[in-house]
Amino acid sequence: MICGRALVRNGKTAAGKQRYRCLECGASRSGERPDVSRRAELEAFLGWLLGTSSQSASTSLGTARSFRRRTSWCWTIAPQIPITGEIHDQIQVDGIYVGSWCCLIAVAGDHVLGWQWCDTEKKAAWTALLARFPAPIVVITDGGSGIAAALSECWSETAVQRCLVHVQRNVRTHLTGRPRTDAGKALLRLGRALTRITTAAEAAAWLGGLNDWHQTYGHLVKARTYRNGSAVVPGWVRANQTWWYTHDRLRKAYRLLERLSQAGTLFTYLRTEFAGLQIASTTNRIEGGTNAQLRLLLRAHRGMSEDHRKRAIEWYLYLHSEQSLQPAKLIETHHHTPPKTKSKAQKEQDPGPELYSTGLSADEGLSHRKGWAGRS
Q1: How many Å apart are CA 325 and CA 125, to the nearest integer?
Q2: Which of 56, 223, 285, 356 has its CA 20 to 30 A from that of 119?
């Protein structure tokens, strides 16, 4: 067996095939170089995995069955993006769910910085991802669960920009696309205007409009309904609840905009100290440039197991990073030559009492008849 790490030519065989000798183990082999074959198999594997063609049509490894047999070892390669320690002006973070797993992704510019697998978007998972990189100047996030606590722990000095598209969606979720009241319609217009703001003056005018809305309709946010014989109880009210907010959806939409405006995370991209950095106001780069492509990749290969889907996502993210190596350089011996497991010798058990028998037993009424057998 030749390891194939450092091969040199060592003449030809009588049949005319090239013979190779390994400088490390000294073994020789004729025919095709194993390192070249593995490189070709990995390239064919990635061409199929990151493409949309079938296994037999996208490669030159023969039939689909031959392709799966020759590239089965490629699933064992787990790519990892090296950490460079570079400080970025802005980093976008988001998560995508794959079966029972969630992949948290960090992107800077056009390149992927890293990812973290977890079960849900929680503080521990976000902390494990953010702790790998130096704190950037601004981080753009959609405000998912756990990210705020992780940011305060890992990147406490980093400014936060909330994705305005996600804020719009949240407002529309609370108010619906066609609210009935004048207060709901006015608040929905404010939410839709968020993504059209490009200057600090427009941001100040928007904040003034939110304050004017509160001056006009603020009493609706505080209105309560108490449980009595004539009150209609909504389905979401608990059985032991004595009162609830009358305009609960309107209150949630306003409180969302009020909380973000007071925290100063709506218009971070318009601050004067960040002028010239071209800070993004949305996570469209990671949503449309990375997550959307991952969903297309999984849709093209639907039917794969959960582990294979995770590996496909890792390869896509790795090949879209700035410091990625050639895939062939990630091949190691243990990938294509797994360690052999020692087979345990089967030891026969000591003979015990006979449990089943084909012989006749008088106890069961089965015995050979003797004598005259009823003869007279």
Answers
A1: 26
A2: 285
